[in-house]
Automatic annotation (TrEMBL):
Residues 1-10 have a biased composition (Basic residues). The keyword Ion transport does not apply. GO terms for cellular component: cytosol; nucleus. It holds the Pfam family RAI1. It comes from the Eukaryota. GO terms for biological process: NAD-cap decapping; nuclear-transcribed mRNA catabolic process. It is an enzyme of class 3 (hydrolase). Decapping enzyme for NAD-capped RNAs: specifically hydrolyzes the nicotinamide adenine dinucleotide (NAD) cap from a subset of RNAs by removing the entire NAD moiety from the 5'-end of an NAD-capped RNA. This is Decapping nuclease. Keywords: Hydrolase, Magnesium, Metal-binding, Nuclease, Nucleotide-binding, Nucleus, RNA-binding. Residues 1-37, 67-88 are annotated as: Disordered. It is found in: Nucleus.
Length: 397
């Protein structure tokens, strides 16, 4: 195999590449934290462009109908004593995880608002469109030791779209999820039901069904280094008492975790779980995570507020802890890697970025099904825009 940049013999005319020619090594991106420990990169304060809701049947609505309002229990010196097992499994309607939604809901929002986005400095060739959850996985990659990921990327009309692909291992895990883990997932949603009301000043109603199809999503713009970002993420609730009513600073993230009883347990919590909480909330600019700590019987015994900007303080002096600069520098490096790799503008051409713990990010090239993820209705509508004035179609699968 010839090294990159080596010239073949002068004067030789090559008619065709031999079929068994060993391909050049594909480019890759290392993930060792030590490589990304420089100063914190520029990250523009996220601003909300809009929102959308998904209803109990997972249908899209371009409004805030699914938004809930933070309504914590009174602080009377006693624990809230929420029973997170209440209603399981009788009043539980989980989302069908076999349905691959990809970027579809976000693309629907983009189509409806493309008029306001055109000409915007954040909607120019080179912008990156994705889900907040995909960026969260990139932020935590340098410290992740268990779960790999795959991200599909396509460039269309100059914009780079990133959409997660379920890895074979993740699919096996999902299909063989033990009953206890399924119940723990329910408990997280049940906690939200205890902490949220349907209107400002209202009271939570934990007697209803927990339906995980329902979601309120914020659409935000930001910039990491020289990469303009347009991404969407689910929001648990809005705090009507927040100092600022301007999204996203009035949003609240709700989490549950098991009760901790020893310094070792807290240290592990700060190193692992708090990293994911920080990444998930820092990206969209959500200022606070409210955690409910549950006992082995599934009752919430205490609540604790973790301000997003203070989470790093818990691991600052832990040599085995995480560093926000490493997370953001790696994410910026990956986005540069993706931008430089995905150069051909073709919605049917997909570059699959794959990563497993302990190794580098690798990339492979694919065309059409099963990897192509930009739906025909979106591509056709955006292409039509170049030929005629904007008109919002109703997306079809």
């Amino acid at each position: 195999m010839e090294p990159r940049g080596t010239k073949r013999g002068a004067g030789k005319i090559e008619v065709a590449e031999p079929r068994n020619k060993v391909p050049r090594p594909a480019p890759s991106l290392p993930t060792d934290p030590a490589l990304y420990s420089g100063p914190f990169p520029f990250y523009r304060r996220p601003s909300e462009l809009g929102c959308f809701s998904l209803d109990a049947q997972r249908q899209y609505h371009g409004d805030a109908r699914a938004l809930r309002y933070y309504s914590p229990p009174p602080t009377n010196g006693q624990g809230p004593n929420f029973d997170l097992r209440d209603g399981y499994p009788d009043r539980y309607q989980p989302r069908d995880e076999e349905v691959q939604e990809r970027l579809d809901h976000l693309l629907r929002w983009l189509l409806e608002h493309r008029g306001q986005l055109e000409g915007s400095p954040d909607w120019r060739p080179g912008a990156i469109v994705t889900w907040r959850g995909h960026l969260t996985k990139l932020l935590t990659t340098p410290y992740e030791r268990q779960e790999g990921w795959q991200l599909a990327a396509s460039r269309f009309q100059g914009t780079l779209y990133l959409s997660e692909v379920e890895t074979p291992a993740a699919r096996v895990q999902r299909l063989t999820r033990p009953p206890l883990l399924r119940e723990l997932m329910y408990m997280g949603y049940k906690f939200e039901q205890y902490m949220c009301a349907d209107k400002p000043g209202g009271s939570p109603d934990p007697s209803g069904e927990v339906n995980t199809n329902v979601a309120f999503c914020s659409v935000l713009r930001s910039r990491l280094g020289n990469h303009p970002l347009l991404f969407s993420g689910e929001v648990d609730c809005i705090d009507p008492q927040a100092p600022s009513t301007q999204p996203p600073t009035c949003y609240v993230e709700l989490k549950t975790s098991k009760e901790m009883h020893s310094p070792g347990q807290w240290k592990s919590f700060y190193r692992h779980k708090l990293l994911k909480w920080w990444a998930q909330s820092f990206l969209p600019g959500v200022p606070n995570v409210i955690a409910g700590f549950r006992n082995p019987e599934g009752f919430v015994c205490s609540l604790k507020t973790f301000p997003t900007m203070e989470m790093f303080e818990y691991v600052r002096n832990d040599r085995d802890g995480w560093n926000p600069s490493v997370c953001m520098n790696f994410c910026a490096a990956f986005l540069s890697f993706a931008q430089n790799t995905v150069v051909q503008d073709d919605p049917r051409l997909v570059y699959l970025f794959s990563w497993e713990p302990g190794g580098p990010v690798t990339v492979s090239e694919h065309r059409d099904a099963p990897h192509a993820f930009l739906p025909t209705w979106y591509v056709e509508a955006m292409t039509q825009d170049l030929l005629s004035p904007p008109k919002t179609p109703s997306p079809k699968d």
